[in-house]
Specification:
Elements lengths: L1 E5 L6 H12 L3 E3 H10 L3 H12 L5 H12 L8 E4 L5 H13 L6 E6 L2 H9 L1 E4 L5 E3 L14 E2 L6 H24 L4 E5 L4 H13 L1
Parallel strand pairs: 1-3, 1-4, 2-3, 4-8
Antiparallel strand pairs: 5-6, 5-7
Helix pairs in contact: 1-8, 2-3, 4-5
The structure holds BIS(adenosine)-5'-pentaphosphate (AP5).
């Protein structure tokens, strides 16, 4: 099963993606995590992407599509995947659909996480993430040990107020049109209220996947 998570920055795609993938028994693939890992490894392509990421802009479609091709054809994704943040522009959505068709697959469901903007800003302003496994936390200071892998929690550079504003604007301008595109192309898009307890949101998402 291929599930694509859509939603603004801070909507909980990372948090929920991990949980949904575990329940479905398939991997979660997050382009943001793959890019940040590449930046840490200082690959040439990633260093060019870093500038876009730090200021909250999107990395060029060609970079993302190249990355997706490698990931989707890997044996790990044979049974499907939960794709977090993978599709952020209409050209990416078209590219992903074509790539999947070549592999005899399709997007089975788009899950769209809905959270009011004031809550998004609050969540991102208070977030720390594990520098090793990328697990996001709320209410834990940088320098704290990750509960999952023991790595060190840090703040993301793009969680500074100015980058948050840019990311919200970029989402509205470039990613929201993907929702319209998916609906026009008769793909299954389920809107999820992504406020409230994390476990309850996971249950809502799982119910939406059963529809
Ligand atoms: P990416 O890492 O994907 O960032 P994003 O989309 O901005 O999303 P976030 O990771 O900020 O938020 P999230 O929705 O995952 O929320 P989270 O679970 O952490 O991308 C980063 C950058 O990489 C992009 O800006 C771009 O430059 C580049 N990039 C990546 N993919 C790309 C692509 N396809 N094309 C082009 N460029 C690309 O939760 C947020 C916080 O809220 C956490 O602290 C969490 O603990 C907390 N929280 C979660 N759920 C709840 C809840 N129910 N109640 C209260 N708090 C909650």
């Amino acid at each position: 099963m291929i599930v694509v998570l859509l939603g603004p920055p801070g909507a909980g795609k990372g948090t929920q993606g991990e949980r949904i993938a575990a329940r479905l028994g398939i991997p979660k693939i997050a382009t943001g995590d793959v890019l940040r890992a590449a930046v840490r490894d200082e690959t040439e392509q990633a260093l060019a992407a870093k500038e876009f990421m730090d200021r909250g802009d999107l990395v060029p479609d060609s970079v993302i599509l190249g990355m997706m091709k490698d990931v989707l054809s890997s044996p790990d994704a044979a049974k499907g995947a939960v794709l977090d943040g993978v599709v952020r522009t209409v050209p990416q959505a078209e590219g992903l659909t074509m790539m999947l068709a070549e592999l005899g697959k399709k997007v089975d469901k788009f899950l769209l996480f809905d959270v009011p903007e004031n809550e998004l800003v609050m969540r991102l302003g208070g977030r720390t993430v594990c520098g090793t496994c990328q697990t996001p936390y709320r209410g834990l200071e940088p320098g704290t040990a990750c509960e999952k892998c023991g790595g060190t929690l840090e703040r993301r550079k793009d969680d500074e107020p100015e980058s948050i504003r840019t990311r919200l604007h970029v989402y509205e301008a470039q990613t929201e049109p993907v929702i319209e595109w998916a609906e026009e192309n008769k793909m299954s898009v389920e809107r999820i209220d992504a406020t409230g307890p994390v476990e309850e949101i996971t249950n809502r998402a799982m119910r939406a996947l059963e529809k």
